[in-house]
Amino acid sequence: MNRKNLFRHEALLLLKLTGPILLGQLSQTSMGFVDTVMAGRVGPVDLAAVAVGSSLFFPIFLFMVGLLSAVTPLTAQAHGRRDSKDVFHSLQKGIVVGFFCGIVTMVIMWNISPIFQILQVSPEVASPARKYIFAVSWGLPFAGIFLALRSGGEGVSLTRLSMLASFTGLSVNIVANYVLIFGKLGLPAMGGVGCGWATAISMFAMMLTMALLLQRSRVDGVVNLFSRLDGTLFRSMGQFLVLGMPVGLSLFVECSIFAIISLLIARFGPEIVSAHQIALNFTSLLFMIPLSLSMALSIRVGYSIGEKQPVRMKIIVQTGLFLAFCFACGTCLFIVICANPIALLYTKDIIVRERAVHLLLFAALFQLSDAIQVNCCGALRGCKDTAVPMFLMIFAYWGIGLPVGYGIGIIGLGSIQPGPEGFWIGLICGLSISAILQGRRLYKMVGRLQDARPLSV
């Protein structure tokens, strides 16, 4: 197969894998979209409470996503070697880690309230936000198991299963939101707090659906996961944590900067918090496109390494980054053209809508750098290279992005009026630096793997 045909072949494979992953990711992220829209219909305070509560919940949730994403390269490389026993062991390790991580993070969420006082969140927003966090935390143990099952299924290219499980979760979330937020079926109206309980219920539904689908798939290595526990499971847990912990911390760092920004912006009042949440929420929806592609890229890179095909792996990486660039250009243009209709979808409040439109234009600017950096990380994860990318991300986000954002957004450096715009400028700087550093790391890693293994296509 010549290079041009191989490029086309890998592009089609990546898109085939990305499609179900994207639909599944959009379904899960749409839960936040549904929460934001429904809470916004109650009022600005409820919307702000969900925004602040989500800002504290999602960094912890994404840490779990990253930690358990270690299952994907482990199962993908084992699948490439046709080693079904290793696939089984990797999945079981993920389930155990996911459950206990969910318990620990649930307890952490119960004791996170003091941060509201530290960051000067207004009392009218802090009270419902605390209740939202308590409610949503009950779903974390179920979420941990679901994420392990999802990553394992994707590692053996069963991406359609996670899509179906996510659709189930979204459907449950919409119904539960409607019942709990507005007080239907004889239940009291909980407002924004109802979003937290609805999300917890949805996590349980996704876990149960994913387990059933994997059991019915009959693929070697992914069935009978709960029937027997391997006695050697805990002896090899260190390798899993060494691979997964940096990914979890990377996603935590990436999301936590958005959380800190949301909490720092809370001092400007509910209207600005709501506008920021609208821009951030819609950007998070669009981010599912490059994120899903990066997950597909991780699968294909891991599989090609398992098959000992470094030349093909290099072409897979180049193809993935090209697709990421194309998608980023499309989302940037879409935001610029549709900023006003997007804001109108979330709220009818004129002040909030105008501010949201303004912030969405900033969001359009970092689409390219965000897409490139997340796909470089995805390819590196497929190579089982996670520690160095984590430190590069920490430097870019906390060493560059947040200080620049704080300096402009709070202090007013450069004679710029303090406000949320300064933080979005900081995000653009941090994401751009991350894209450069991760790209350089990936270039070196691909070259190293090619030199270390026999060349084959």
How would you characterize the overall build of this protein?
The chain is mainly alpha-helical and 457 residues long. It is 83% helix and 0% strand. The chain is built from 16 helices and no strands.
Quick structural overview:
The protein has 16 helices and no strands. With 457 residues, it is an all-alpha fold. The longest helix has 40 residues.
Low-confidence stretches: none
Individual helix count? 16
Query: Mean pLDDT, rounded to whole units?
Result: 82
What Rg, in angstroms, do the CA atoms define? Answer: 21 Å
> Helix/strand/pairing class, anyone?
mainly alpha
- The H/E string reads HHHHHHHHHHHHHHHH
User: How many separate domains make up the residues?
Assistant: 1
What fraction strand? under 5%
What share of residues is helical? over 70%
Q: In whole angstroms, how far apart are the ends? A: 8 Å
Describe the global form.
Answer: globular
The major sheet is characterized as: none
Number of strands: 0
